Amino acid sequence: MSGMSGTVDASVKGTPLGWALADCWTMTRRELAHWGRQPVQVVVGLVFPVMLLLMFGYLIGGGRGVEGDYVDFLVPGMLALTMAFGLESTMLAVTQDLNKGVIDRFRSMPMTNGAVLVGRSAADMLQSALSLALLIGVGYAIGWRPHASFGAFLAAVGLLLLLRFAMLWIGIHLAMVAGRPEMVQAVQILVWPVGFLSNAFATPESMPGWLGAAVEWNPMSATATAVRDLFGSPGAAGSSGASWAAEHAGMLAVAWPLVLVAVFFPLAVRRFGALSK
Amino acid sequence: MADSAILVEGVRKNYGDKRALDGLDLTVGRGTVHGVLGPNGAGKTTLVRVLATLLRHDEGRVEVAGQDVRTRADEVRRRIGLLGQHAALDEDLGGRQNLEMFGRLYHLGRRHARVRAGELLERFGLADTGRKAVKQYSGGMRRRLDLAASLITEPEVLYLDEPTTGLDPRGRAEVWGAVRSLVDGGTTVLLTTQYLEEADQLADRISVVDHGRVIADGTADELKSKTGGDRIDVVLRDAGQLGAAVALLPAETGDVSVDTDRRLLSAPVADRMAALTGTVRALEEAGIEAEDIAVRRPTLDEVFLHLTKGVAA
Predict the structure, then answer these.
(1) Which of A231, A257, B192, B223 is the one with CA 20 to 30 A from A238?
(2) What is the value of pTM for the model shown?
(3) Are residues B188 and B241 in the same domain?
(4) Residues B105 and B138 reside in one and the same domain
(5) Adjacent-strand bridge partners of B6
(6) Are B160 and B132 in contact (CB under 8 A)?
């Protein structure tokens, strides 16, 4: 015991909340250290949505049913789509982590239980914020001009990050339910149609009725419409006298992610605790 | 029970229909090395995971360092170290990064965590690994770093789950040396292994586990005595005579094991001297030439086979 006393003494200083925050910070630093180890992966993750933006802006282009400048319509849609696609990167990262032996060590240590998840979410949110900044910069470069006050601009970024936060907890939950890397591929394939069944690239009015309705109720569409509204872009709520969902996009862009977080956050945390069952 | 570092009473754990632990009992005295010996699937790893608070048992009582693993998991976690079968390290980071991270999570504080990481890297011969990621380490280096990570807080109780599986003899000797010096420092060690030699070398006491239950325990010597004591080994010059020689040994024919490749007969004996002289005389009279005859204690392998067979039957 004599050898131990020093370390135990050192470990009882500080409040439980203080240590919980310290653990979360340590786990966030771990994720950032991974970035330092794999800079290429980080760059690819940031460049991919930029490539999509350029591809749709120049190659595929057009924008069915869009009144006004397509780039002004497309950029907010791409921002929302990038947030939605964050689901798969979160799921992949959590799945890989859960299959590593290091999780056993974390769980056998007297650290805050959820710090592993908090580290993941902090790193993913930071990555998404960087991705948004880069996309907005590239959007400017290809001629996008938001007609928004600074406050509206910040509100739009806030809505986008809120959508990302919802996707984060869905991703964590799916990773824990699926558990195996093979399942990530299945989800990756499913995320694409869900992402594209939105108003990111075309207006719902330009689609067959049933498809347009489904697209309008897609949480991602609500965020895209609300963000277009705030940016003063074409395709904003009410710009084409559209449905209830489009009229209330701002409210839905807040409500959808909150509902998703309210459902998946407790599910994910419970799953993480249930690893010991 | 103040002197026991680990106390396990009637522990059960089911995975669905499968019984992993089926009323297992175990007491490990402070400062001792306890070997848990058993075949694959006997429940050794499940036991370690329960003791390390990674898995909740269904029934029974489990205390580590006087703390209940279910109700006082954090107190247990402060006092244990775990070296599992697979490296519990962040393989994308370097050795120092790993140890500093774990030190912070043990709440040593930033400076203390850094100093401790340096000490451990030095002690386990990893001080010159620099920024190299753990995934580029050799198996032995990885295992040493894993052991270092298990020792950050100088735990009261250390679990080693098959610590030398997959290591070459040198790596194995390194781990054994580290375990011995820990025990000299007063750490209690619970060691699971499939290698009987490992249990024989390191453990003060051994529990033989099969089908989630302890089927025998004691010191290595006690276990060896339980299997019927001494054995006689006879190596013949001519493998063709093995069949004829079986009947000449002072044992029931069914108890004689025959190893054709090594031209070896082995049988349990009651009386060492009578068996030796009797066998020599009988072989001579039958005209069977022996290369070697010896009476010896049973190996733990034989004890183990004997015990696990008994349960299966």
Answers:
(1) A257
(2) 0.82
(3) no
(4) yes
(5) B28, B64
(6) no
Nearest Cβ partner for B93 among A1, A37, A104: A37
Question: Rounded to 10 degrees, what is the CA torsion of B135, B137, B139, B140?
Answer: -150
Contact B107 A101 (CB under 8 A): no
Residue B113 lies in a domain: yes
Cβ neighbours of B175 (radius 10 Å): 21
- The number of distinct structural domains making up chain B is 2
- The residue to which tokens 């490992």 are assigned: B198
Helices A70-98/A181-196 angle, 10° precision: 160
Scanning the structure block, which residue is given the tokens 């007609």?
Answer: A147
Are the Cβ atoms of B52 and A108 closer than 8 angstroms? Answer: yes
- Interface pTM (ipTM) of the complex? 0.84
Q: Specify the amino acid at residue B58.
A: D
Residue B211 sits in which domain range?
4-224
Half-sphere CA count of B68, side-chain side, radius 13 A: 8
CA distance A184 to chain B (A): 21
Torsion from C-alpha of B198, B203, B206, B210, nearest 10 degrees: -40
Q: B311 lies in a domain?
A: no
CATH number for B275? 3.30.70.100
Work out the angle between the directed axes of helices B110-123 and A2-12 (0-180°, nearest 10): 150
Q: Based on the domain organization, do B115 and B84 belong to the same domain?
A: yes
pLDDT digit string, tens, across residues B52-107: 999 999 999 999 999 999 999 999 999 999 998 888 999 999 999 999 999 999 99
* Residue B173, token pair as written in the block: 């000797």
What's the token pair of residue B167?
């290591």
Of A223, A189, A261, A241, which is closest to residue A78 (Cα–Cα)?
Answer: A223
Q: Same structural domain for residues B110 and B57?
A: yes
